[in-house]
Amino acid sequence: MAWDFETDPEYQKKLDWVQEFVENEVEPLTQIGVGMGGVKSKTYQKAVRPLQAKVKEMGLWACHLTPDLGGQGYGQVKLALLNEKLGRVGLAPVVFGCQAPDTGNAEIIAHYGTKEQKDKYLWPLLNNEITSAFSMSEPTGGSDPLFFKTRAELHGDEWVINGEKWFSTGARNAEVLVVYAVTDPDHKDPYKRMSMFLVPKKTPGVEILRNVGVGGMGGGNEGYVRYTNAKVPFDAMLGPRGAAFELGQVRLGGGRVHHAMRTVGQCQKALDLMCQRAVSRSTRDGRLGDYQMVQEQIADSYIQLQQFRLMVLHVAWLIDKHKDYKKVRKDIAAVKVAMPKVYHDIAANALHIHGALGVSNEMPFMGMVTSSFVMGIADGPTEVHKITVAKQLLKDFRPDNDLFPSYHLPKVRERARQKHADLVEELKAEWANRARSIDAL
Ligand SMILES: Cc1cc2nc3c(=O)[nH]c(=O)nc-3n(C[C@H](O)[C@H](O)[C@H](O)COP(=O)(O)OP(=O)(O)OC[C@H]3O[C@@H](n4cnc5c(N)ncnc54)[C@H](O)[C@@H]3O)c2cc1C
Questions:
Q1: Buried-state track 212-228, b at ≥16 Cβ within 10 A, e below 16
Q2: CA–CA separation, 353 vs 271, rounded Å?
């Protein structure tokens, strides 16, 4: 009997420390734009490095990693509880060494990289000495990787890359771009036509056309990147030829769950602010929190958050158990589908209860609502993940050739008759007696 909803007290102490540290030390930095200039900027060195040193002292650096990669080997459940705290503030994952997209990129380099690739990129990424971007989506194809057009052709001992990618988050400050490109356009399996490459951003022919901004979330961080005859050496390929799709799934599997963990933190923050407002703001008949319609919004938000949080923790537990994202595909997809709606609804309730202040840039709710839409699109839109959930569920069912499935109850009765023939006779007698006694009335 191993169901347990308790956090071990020693770890809880660490989580309490994280909450206070993030609120007092990290959140103020986000309000003055620290981090925008990249890891090599003077302001980053001055403001972020000392905080990272404190995190390392506390033994909380890069908790998503196993000890051989410099992490704590905590596993996904502990990571989920930590990410709930880090998710409250945008810069916090950077301070704790577990920020996207570097976490996912480092994960595939750790799994599939050669020794040279690890020396060049993995260790500097894990130490946050450099950052990276994942350059997969294209203007002509996002949800459907079979529409990607960027080509990598082998000329002598070099790959020559041509094409356009957009929404390469963080490309602006990245040292290396993880690029999806078609290498084998005629392969009979369409999922084996693409390979992945590690492309230094300073490679001639790599050009950031612009940095696209998203909603109300400040300056553009989504790189629109053009590759024109960008040449990389033969050994710049990451993993086997034709394996980009497989590597991408490994990378995105973990990334989607980590986004969900951090979204729990965002939702909790919105709910806390909502409750604070409800007990602080009064109108002529009492506090906002005394009105039933406000209470309904608070209760609905709490219930949605609890459902979602348990779902996320359960997926984290499943990943720890199976140690294989593929075995947990259905549940990861289900969490991905649930996330945007829960996030949207709670942020919208919090925004609404704050009135005009709620839509202003003095509160975080507009950014949260925008982010909720991003969560429904980035890493694959909701519809695609719903298809995964349904397909995974349906594969455990076989067609019933005997009877139409709606004849389920007669079938069960037939089984009962066969299994409990004596009982059926007794019941018939009982009912006959009862009918006689009713007749006698
Ligand atoms: C903030 C942000 C950051 C991002 N960061 C990165 C990044 O770092 N690297 C990267 O490579 N990409 C990144 N992306 C891109 C992201 O992966 C794509 O936006 C996503 O895969 C969807 O592709 P698309 O935008 O081309 O939408 P489309 O593929 O054009 O889909 C548009 C809509 O069509 C519908 N649709 C599509 N397919 C189906 C289907 N099979 N069934 C039913 N309906 C469907 C859905 O409603 C979907 O929302 C980011 C996106 C955002 C918004």
A1: eebeebeeebbbbbbbe
A2: 11
Q: Which uninterrupted H or E stretch holds 209? A: strand 206-212
* pLDDT > 70? residue 217: no
Q: Is 374 in the pocket of ligand 1 (CB under 6 A)?
A: yes
Nearest ligand 1 atom, CA 143? 29
Dihedral sign (CA 244, 245, 250, 251): positive
Q: How far apart are CA 317 and CA 257, in angstroms?
A: 11
CB-based burial label for 412 (10 Å; 0-12, 13-18, 19+): exposed
Name the pLDDT band for 435 (thresholds 50, 70, 90).
Answer: confident
Dihedral, 27, 213, 104, 130 alpha carbons, nearest 10: -70
Determine if ligand 1 sits within 6 Å of the CB of residue 372: no
| Residues 6+ away with beta carbon under 8 Å from 404 | none
Task: Decide: 384 in ligand 1 pocket, CB within 6 A.
Answer: yes
β-bridge pairing 282-283 and 286-287: antiparallel
Using an 8 Å Cβ cutoff, are 120 and 59 in contact? no
Q: Measure the CA–CA gap between 19 and 26, rounded to whole angstroms.
A: 10
Of 206, 193, 201, give the one whose Cα is nearest residue 244: 193
The torsion angles phi and psi of 281, rounded to 5 degrees, stand at -100, 130
Q: What is the pLDDT of residues 261-298, one digit of tens each?
A: 999 999 999 999 999 999 999 999 899 999 999 999 99
- Ligand 1 centre distance from Cα of residue 97 (Å): 27
Does ligand 1 have an atom closer than 6 angstroms to the CB of 380? yes
pLDDT in tens, 161-197: 999 999 999 999 999 999 999 999 999 999 999 999 9
Reduced to 3 states (helix: H, G, I; strand: E, B; else coil), residue 161 is strand
Q: How far apart are CA 220 and CA 174, in angstroms?
A: 14
How far is the C-alpha of 217 from the C-alpha of 213, rounded, in Å?
7
pLDDT digits (tens, 9 = 90+) for 232-270: 999 999 999 999 999 988 888 788 999 999 999 999 999
